[in-house]
């Protein structure tokens, strides 16, 4: 395919080989051994093409954005500039949390192409591991690390306001991807929309109830405004369990093409909300060999530990940097331990409630909106699937509407357990 | 003075004449009659040089930003790029509310120079009118117009999110001016700071009490975060009574060099807070001919009418545009009159509380921070001045800390009256 005027051309495998041969950084990554390259297209996401490239002396992944939503087609155009913001976020988050973000080897802006570390087997997408019922004992530890470090160090708790506004301006350029989130998370699920789908007819009444739930819609409007207006930190923007690759001892966060300066709670909530979805899907995966009861407990423990560890690590980073150059709380003003404690308690409580609100909104959209999750989709018995989905939906609505009443993650888990009880 | 490498040179009167002669837009504005120009430097603000240029067939004002804070000197540098953002805001707000914003004739970015309409006598700075005890019967009507139109049409109630983020990014460039506000409004008054001053020794204990008021400081932190993070609308950013010129039938908002996408309440609060300062200063201006009691009632009425008219006009604009392209509340979702009412009530209540918080913070900083107001400064009897200032300070602290309890502007005015009662 010939290059467009802007230098872009979508690569197929043959063209990719030529591209690699012509790109010194990629040749070097392969140890200059370009014979016998194995190339495999593995993009199972909604948006991009992803190739694994492996040679005898090195490997990497090539991710190329195309100018439309892959799972819908050219009828839903989407800027390929998202690759630029993905590369920026990978580099920024990678520098803050190198253990949990794949290294970027090469970025080509006209081609919307990123070359990055190949996450070798046994890395799999976390969502698939959750469906398979695999425990990841370090997941909460790793994800709380990632969340605490990426969010703290890109917030005004660490940034001076000048550098913050400069970074905010740069990521305002990713507005088109933000707009997609605004539509599919905060708008479409609450109205009749072309691409909405759900397990029908089982959930028809539930979907209608959402569209008629005034309290829910008022709360969602508040979350949407916060998403659109509040530049709190550089967030991943799409931190569900399909954006995380895992082994028993490695956790890698990928695909930050939705990254921008937004509310921290959106990332925390995305991860926790998708774990709750995984929890509610387990009954659909239970069989006579494995009733998944132990696994469900592990998921709940992981939710609890993730928030509690995040809280601890985030506040620790704050304490270590209280007299740093962050400008939200100047140490000359917030100058006593008891005042610092009060300030932190208020901040963390608000953040907790934001995370619950956004997490619940992300749950709802995965059941009644355009993009569903394999956790439920892989339950072939529709009645069983609908039953799992309905409980998740009820749980999400409760959390979203009542979020300000929760003081601890344990209380949230109690609600999850109550709703899941037969 | 020779031009710097960036094309900037500070103009004196002689250089200004040469500049005008060489600039077609300015020559045209003077009807090409360049003989006998009267030029007067009138900049009494803290930051810039301002010249009135009048010829036999036309006139204008030239405002030139210099790269430091004029009232402090070169020891406090400040980007002259502020003139660029001022010109942008004048044009944007001017297009939305032409009756209350002076027309821009010419902008020269390298020179940081704006030529705009000369607001001819009897226009005076509103603050001077308030000190003189002059009633402006249309002030509430005009300012509620300005606030409703400039804030509504630059918010997500009218903007699509793409255009909003694009505009937000542009104004992130004005970060240095935002930073000045952050320092002098939200930080310095609450700590020991070099340029802080107050009527001493009278208010020494009051200043100390502010630095020791944990509740106040926690609330101020929340306001500061909102100022730094929330891109709600294109705000003027410095809308005190010194940024407004008036006659009995004209109200003109000038000097938006602090403009950026920030919280709407900051503008509304700046105006209302400065009216409350004017109110508390009246006892210091009373004499045997005029006890100012009637005038104080007029100020309170103006505060009440400004908010109530703003509320009415803002909601009216919202209703007129509910099915427009604003993306905060899609009409397909917020699809019933009673739901729209609920949404608006919540929005306006939050905005009211934001305005009270920011207004109170602006009052405090004018009494204990670097930049004071002539309302108080012109009270030569220090004891009398301190007494006025202390009441204003107590009022501001109460409003700031208790703002969420207020449901109507009348309730706020009751607090003002109680605190002002002898």
TrEMBL record, chains A, B:
The keyword Transcription regulation does not apply. Homodimer. The keyword ATP-binding applies. Pfam families: APH. It is an enzyme of class 2 (transferase). Its EC number is 2.7.1.100. InterPro entries: Aminoglycoside_PTrfase (IPR002575), Kinase-like_dom_sf (IPR011009), Methylthioribose_kinase (IPR009212). It comes from Musa balbisiana. SUPFAM superfamilies: Protein kinase-like (PK-like) (SSF56112). This is S-methyl-5-thioribose kinase. GO terms for molecular function: ATP binding; S-methyl-5-thioribose kinase activity. Signal peptide: none annotated. One of its GO terms (biological process) is methionine biosynthetic process. Residues 40-272 form the Aminoglycoside phosphotransferase domain. Belongs to the methylthioribose kinase family. Keywords: ATP-binding, Kinase, Nucleotide-binding, Transferase.
């Amino acid at each position: 395919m010939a290059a467009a005027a802007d230098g872009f051309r979508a690569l197929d495998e043959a063209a990719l080989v030529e591209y690699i041969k012509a790109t010194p950084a990629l040749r070097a990554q392969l140890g200059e051994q370009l014979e016998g390259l194995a190339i495999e297209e593995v993009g199972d996401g909604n948006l991009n093409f992803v190739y694994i490239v492996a040679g005898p002396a090195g490997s990497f992944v090539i991710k190329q954005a195309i100018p439309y939503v892959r799972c819908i087609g050219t009828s839903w155009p989407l800027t390929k500039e998202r690759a630029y913001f993905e590369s920026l976020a990978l580099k920024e988050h990678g520098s803050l949390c190198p253990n949990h973000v794949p290294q970027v080897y090469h970025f080509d802006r006209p081609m919307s192409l990123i070359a990055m570390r190949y996450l070798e087997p046994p890395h799999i997408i976390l969502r698939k591991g959750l469906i398979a019922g695999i425990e990841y004992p370090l997941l909460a530890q790793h994800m709380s690390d990632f969340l605490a470090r990426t969010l703290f160090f890109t917030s005004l708790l660490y940034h001076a306001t000048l550098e913050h506004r400069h970074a905010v301006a740069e990521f305002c350029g990713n507005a088109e991807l933000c707009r997609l989130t605004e539509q599919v998370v905060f708008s479409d699920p609450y109205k009749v929309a072309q691409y909405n789908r759900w397990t029908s007819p089982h959930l028809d009444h539930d979907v209608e109830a959402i569209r008629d739930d005034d309290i829910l819609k008022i709360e969602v409007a508040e979350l949407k405004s916060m998403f659109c207006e509040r530049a709190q930190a550089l967030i991943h923007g799409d931190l569900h369990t399909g954006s995380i690759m895992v082994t028993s001892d490695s956790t890698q966060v990928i695909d930050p093409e939705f990254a921008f300066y937004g509310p921290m709670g959106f990332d925390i909530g995305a991860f926790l909300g998708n774990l709750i979805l995984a929890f509610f899907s387990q009954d659909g995966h239970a069989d006579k060999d494995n009733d998944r009861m132990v696994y469900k407990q592990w998921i709940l423990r992981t939710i609890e530990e993730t928030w509690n560890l995040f809280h601890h690590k985030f506040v620790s980073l704050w304490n270590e940097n209280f007299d740093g150059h962050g400008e939200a709380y100047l140490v000359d003003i917030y100058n006593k331990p008891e005042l610092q404690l009060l300030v932190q308690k208020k901040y963390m409580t608000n953040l907790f409630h934001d995370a619950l609100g956004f997490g619940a909104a992300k749950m709802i959209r995965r059941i009644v909106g355009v993009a569903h999750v394999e956790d439920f989709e892989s339950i072939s018995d529709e009645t069983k699937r609908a039953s799992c989905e309905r409980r998740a939906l009820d749980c999400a609505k409760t959390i979203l509407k009542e979020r300000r009443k929760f003081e601890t993650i344990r209380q949230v888990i109690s609600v999850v357990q109550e709703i899941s009880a037969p």
